[in-house]
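Service request form, structural biology core

Requester: graduate student, group of Dr. S.
Request type: structure prediction, single chain
Budget code: on file
Notes: please return the result as structure tokens.

Sequence provided:
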Amino acid sequence: MYSKQTHGNHRLVAAACRCLPLLLAAIFSLRPALAADPPPDPESRIRELERQMQALSKELREMQSPSLALNKSKGEPLLGGFKDGIYIEDADGNWKLQLNGRVQADYRNYSTDAFAADTFGVRRARLGVSLAFLKHYALRVEGEYGGGSTALTYGYLDLNWWKAAQIRIGQFKPSYGLERSMSTNFIDFQERSLADSLLGATFDRGLMVYGTPLRGTHYSIAVVNGSGPNTDDSNSAKDAMLRATGNAAEWANWNNAVLHVGGFYGRGKQANGLAALSAKTEALGTTFFATANAFSNDIDRTRDGAELALAYGPMKLQGEYIHADYEGTNIERSLSAWYTSITWLMSGERYADAYKNGGFGRIKPKQNFVLLAEGSGAFELGVRYSQFDASGFTTANTVGTGQLNAGLTNEANAWTLGAKWILNPNARLMLNYVRTRFHTPVTLNGKTSDHEDALTMRAQLDF
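Core staff response, request fulfilled:
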């Protein structure tokens, strides 16, 4: 029987036969000269023989890969591998298909006088695919499976005709601030700060133009529904937003530093009023703030923020201030929140290496952790303080104008201590201690407390 293996063996024998003349030529070229005149330029002849041997070695390797050789005979070789995701692409660079996913498995332990119960949970479980083709086009589809039901997170098409003005259409994450714009795979602590609760839904549908018009700068302009993911809201006027950032360290060619400044502004009208507002602690335990009802009439919602990040080598200082206004007939309410944090990569990695396009991304350890070997991964310590202020929302407000739910509070602050072990660029373990203090005691389910203590842990794998 003539098998594929037999065919491959025959091809290898044929290639070996073609090697023989080159090998003989190499031997004779190196023998002592018998003629009276020495050979012209022996070094050039040796270099040429080396080049021919390298070309033949490459051909032999290709023959030992049946799938690659088969596709190459048709003029369409396929390449594959792993680089922050599993990918397959054609050798000519016409298209690239990449599989991405993440799992964040959490454990949360609350103090005995807290309102929440200890729990194991899957914070996020996502799987998606992206396709880049014809150099200027890309699409991405991703689903969330960790919340008990499947939901779309990303679903968009990119038109990358100009680096300074790329176009994104579909469902995506608008860039409201530094912390929100960063992937949850790479944020400094297990959860985002109290300030994140002012920004509303993470994903929305619409159109965004973004890019890097000048070195060290980044911007995004978006028009979205303003109603969150997986909804086509035809009743609301659209939200428009702008975010712009700059990194002065890039302008000064300081490769070991980041001097990031930026800000955003967004405005939109909610034609049917705005859903009830709420905020949870950073440990995702207590819902300490919530309005009794949605606003009763049309609302103009304005959100803005300022951001700063200073990094030098393994040290980083980061902070943001975010403000939100809600205005309508006989309604004028506002929210504000801010945070500041400092983090230290104890193993010596540089934050500047993870900074790109107005945000921080994947930290790559100097040495990946390998059991029973020298590699230990990267270690990071951090502390964050955040504050939340919704003092304009009180229980005395009338229904539909931002009335605070009975038993809750309109102000809170939190300290978070974090430790992180980055085993390799795609895996990390996190441990956070979060202490939240409520401005007035919160009463829920027959319990009353002015604080929440929590110890949280996460095991994460992403690709």
